[in-house]
């Protein structure tokens, strides 16, 4: 006995729904991704060759840091050496003018963390002109 075979149907995959799912996943990942914007301070380091002061019309703010990490803003010693009190003192001295140049004078033996705290306070308040003061190195002995 010979059975008749049915003709086979061609099987094709409908890609339209797959493409829809891929676009929805792509849209989901684009919307839920967070992009962090790194903020940076522009640091104008003084050149050791010239040794001349900068020509600024406005009076610069000065943060001095002693060897044991005590802060002073414009020669006024702060009671606490933390970020909050430094930010308060800078706001009071600057009167909201963040375009004024800010100079950090740190002792050679100051811990790096104290200098970073001063730079962090300046960055959080929006100061963009930051200078690190140094002294000219003595020439090497012959």
UniProtKB/TrEMBL annotation:
A Gene Ontology cellular component where this protein is annotated is:
plasma membrane
**Annotated Gene3D superfamilies:** 3.30.420.270
Per UniProt, subcellular location reads as: Cell membrane
Q: What is this protein called?
A: Biopolymer transporter ExbD
Which superkingdom? Bacteria
- Gene Ontology process terms (BP): protein transport
- What topology does the record note for this protein and the membrane? Single-pass membrane protein; Single-pass type II membrane protein
| Record bears the keyword Acetylation | no
Per the record's keyword annotation, is Cell inner membrane included, yes or no? no
Q: Keyword set for this entry?
A: Cell membrane, Membrane, Protein transport, Transmembrane, Transmembrane helix, Transport
Question: What protein family is recorded?
Answer: Belongs to the ExbD/TolR family.
PANTHER family, per database record? BIOPOLYMER TRANSPORT PROTEIN EXBD-RELATED, EXBD MEMBRANE COMPONENT OF PMF-DRIVEN MACROMOLECULE IMPORT SYSTEM
One function term, GO molecular function aspect: transmembrane transporter activity
Transmembrane ranges, per UniProt, are 12-31
């Amino acid at each position: 006995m010979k059975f008749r075979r049915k003709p086979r149907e061609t099987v094709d995959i409908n890609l339209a729904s797959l493409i829809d799912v891929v676009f929805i996943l792509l849209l989901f990942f684009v919307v839920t991704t967070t992009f962090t914007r790194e903020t940076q301070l522009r640091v104008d380091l003084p050149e050791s060759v010239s040794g001349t002061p900068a020509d600024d019309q406005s009076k610069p703010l000065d943060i001095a840091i002693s060897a044991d990490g005590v802060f002073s803003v414009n020669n006024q010693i702060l009671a606490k050496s933390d970020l909050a009190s430094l930010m308060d003192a800078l706001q009071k001295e600057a009167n909201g003018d963040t375009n004024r140049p800010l100079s950090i004078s740190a002792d050679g033996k100051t811990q790096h963390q104290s200098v970073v705290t001063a730079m962090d306070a300046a960055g959080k308040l929006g100061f963009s002109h930051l200078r690190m003061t140094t002294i000219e190195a003595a020439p090497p002995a012959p």
